Amino acid sequence: MAVAQGIGGALSRGRTWLERDRVLAPILLVPAVAYIVLLVGFPFLFALYLSWTDATTGNPFGRFIGLANFALVFQDPVASRALRNTFVFTLAAQVLVMVLSNVLALALRRPFRGRGAVMFLLLLPWVAPVSLSTIGWLWILHARFSVLDWALRGLSLLPPGANMFWLGRPDLAFGAVVAVHVWRMLPFATVVLLAGHSAIPQDFLDQAEVDGANLWQKYRHVMLPLLAPVAVVALLFGTIFTFTDMTVVYVLTRGGPFDTTQVLASLAFFKGIVGGNLSVGATISLLLFPVLLVAAVFVLRAARRVEVGW
Amino acid sequence: MTGRTRRWLLAAGRVLLVGVFVVFTAFPFAWMGITAFKQNSDLYNPEHNPFWFNEPPTLEHLEYAFTKTRFARWVVNTALVGVGVVVVTLLLTVPAAYSLARLLGRWGERASIAIFLVYLIPPTLLFIPMSLVVTTLGLQNTLWALIVVYPTITVPLCTWLLSGFLRGLPRELEEAAMVDGCTRLGALGRVLLPLAVPGIVTVVIFSFTLSAQEFVYALSFVTATAQKTVSVGVPADMVRGDIFDWGPLMASAFLASVPVAALYYLVIERFVGSFTLGGAFR
After folding, report:
1. A131-185 confidence digits (pLDDT tens)
2. What's the structural domain count of chain A?
3. I need a labelling partner for B109 at 20 to 30 A (CA). Which of A183, A242, A302, B48 fits?
4. Is the torsion defined by CA of B47, B49, B50, B52 positive or negative?
5. Which chain B residues are within 8 Å of A182, Cβ to Cβ?
6. A-contacting residues of B 105-164, CB under 8 Å?
7. Using the beta-carbon criterion (under 8 Å), do A269 and B281 form an inter-chain contact?
8. Residue B201 belongs to what domain range?
């Protein structure tokens, strides 16, 4: 009896001890944090380590070789090309996305019949798995059976029987990669901007109308200043997603023709995973990091300014 | 021009504009859908109008995808990985979000922002060291590799999302339950979690769709055909040399992407909200 009471007492003391915020809070938080440290923090440090070694799949720890990998990467014409492509693709895609999403959000801001269905169709590129939807583009841009070629032939812009070879020519393949990135990020930017639109007080717009403002003036002087912080959020996340993406390039061109559409992420994959050169692959991947870091700092600063009611 | 014609023109312009955008965003999917049901002799005849069924529609490509390729297996694998990731994500996320939202006060808000930032670290930065981790754990070429690794994507985002959601629920109800004799964990289980069901459902859908969409890790860790998920199996294994079976390829891509898209669409507002939610950042 006494023993039972003793155990009961210890148990309830244990429970109240467990109930204390100072004890309970870390117990609940630690599994998630430990998981992140082990599977994000540790691999990241390991990537840093790999970039200073000559590790390969056969010898995953390698020897310390200092900054030789970085020197190698910067001297390699394909890697330099990939570095430049990564920036150019991101910049070109984001400029287009910003312009188009602003126009589209403006057209969608007021409710209309069938808006739900229209939104679903507009969002498809973002909500569908990108590796599968890009296969759709692969077929649209097919060397021989491209539907675009068929249309161009129909419009007499292309001689009968001729083909554009969209993914076979460096300039067109470059354009195709940018186009698919725009296609993919446009819905995301549009929805973010629509969230911004929904936070603009109607009085402001009514007042502008009373003052005789036309659509452009309303957009320029009322909406744009209020949308700017949200647009920055869309731009930052769009930049991060496009900058670090390898799926579009991998499925569409495999980096070709002749490595002209290679980006850092896809090149790291081909060198590190396919080729087994872990150290060089990790080094190329790490070149993504400085831009990510800057973007993350801006995300924090921007997010503090955004106050959209959702 | 009268005000009425002006308004009418504006409305017409808007419909036209939205229509053009819808064609741009949805065309690849429509194209997949059309291709999936066309006979090969129709598909590969450059004289035929590609927008038209010049020969009667066929189900042969669907049949081919299900009987001659591992498509069905990949769908099952995707579902298994998705369920596994959902379970791991919930086990890690729900306690963490509660701790951040209710127990840690101001420090909890900062910590949840730090956790959110982890979401910005992309697979393409980590896949090479991660492949060594997967090999060391002996998980290469298994679905477990993906179940273990995908929560690196879902946990940061879902913890952030759920802690924001819990912060939005009134504290008074739990406090009342505790005054009535509930323990803190009892109040969590009996009062807070039932109220948090919408947030938890969002986490479930997210984790599932994000794992169904993932490509980079799956491509890197799984090379055995039978262990692949749909997002890798279709683009990597249905291409035989340079010969694409466009019919079956489009049928499988269409069939696999539309349900995932529909699921994701259900939670897109919360997803976008998690990026623009100013409140939690203040």
Report:
1. 999 999 999 999 888 999 999 998 989 888 888 999 999 999 999 999 999 999 9
2. 1
3. A242
4. negative
5. none
6. 108, 111, 113, 115, 117-118, 120-122, 124-133, 135, 148-149, 151-152, 155-156, 159
7. no
8. 70-242+249-281
